[in-house]
Amino acid sequence: MAKIEQIPILLLTGFLGSGKTTLLAHWLQAPEMTGAMVIVNELGEVGLDHRLVEASSDVPLLLENGCACCAAQEDLIGTLERLFWDRLHRRVTRFNWVLIETTGMADPLPVIDAIRRHPLLGERYRVAGVVTALDAKRGLERLSEFPECRNQLLAADAVIVTKTDIASMHEIAHIRSRLPDLAPHAKVLSSANGELSATELLGVLATCPRCGSHAHGEGGHEHDHDHAHDHTDHDHAHTDNSARIQAEHAEGVTSAFLPLPKPLAWGPLITALETLMAGHADTLLRLKGLVRLHGAPGWHAVQATPGQGITRAEVPIEEHESPRTGFTLIAFHEPAAAIASSLNALIAIKSARDAVASPTAEAP
Predict the structure, then answer these.
(1) 0.70 cut: is pTM over it?
(2) Domain 7-246 belongs to what architecture?
(3) How many CB atoms neighbour CB 77 within 10 A?
């Protein structure tokens, strides 16, 4: 009997602000990623990450809202099932493998479990690797508060220590010293400036650390390995009566969307964002969104994480599109809607002051 072809899945995970999307956008420019189908999962009413990778991928898919390990799990399973049939009947360009970027709040263990338990997906797909991004500066700060972060490391086949360009040697050494306990099955890689070659990543995932062979190849091994692990068999995972792995989530995490339909001046906006992050450094986990700016044509993606600064990048938008502009905020122990309201007030105040100070000037 002919062996059933299984489509490999690469699961990219990591906590909020760890740099997953930057890594993904970089990888998708590499020839090794040719033939991949990309699925981007986001938490929040309006997505941004899929737009940041669209320039590098043909048709990335966006799960509109929710976390792949719980609220949007059925969406993910349905998407993978539909992709298989579309591929089989040639309704989409044939893809050789699937890359899934999960939201930063996703617990990967239920995602892996759901794929393996599904009658079709378990037969036609295989989880070939779990890659976890870990911020070198702040990646360990949330371990005690967020079980998602711990499980992302525990499930990892490879951990990428990101942002090593802005971390000190002491911070990098400390985080690497903790990884043997936190990610016992993972190989450890490093990324500076959001870059790590796809060649290096895929080589690490394909090579068995014990014998040097291709552990994740379709042929598998002819011998057992002590390092091998089953992502669905960790003692810490909560299960229900049918033994399905349930997502572990920290309590008190909320998200909110602040619509900003009108163009803004960059100067007052960045001042408002800096003030907001300083005032909510312990509760604001992540801010990201799409805005229009005075004096700067096009659409701009703005992202901010307390302690890590603010970034801005122009995003290509199709002429026929009219995306919603504004920010998605994710917060912990403080309602995200309240922080969004504070930001709205700050933007109004800073913009009014800027207009009084220079009534005819536009920010670059």
Answers:
(1) yes
(2) 3-Layer(aba) Sandwich (3.40)
(3) 18
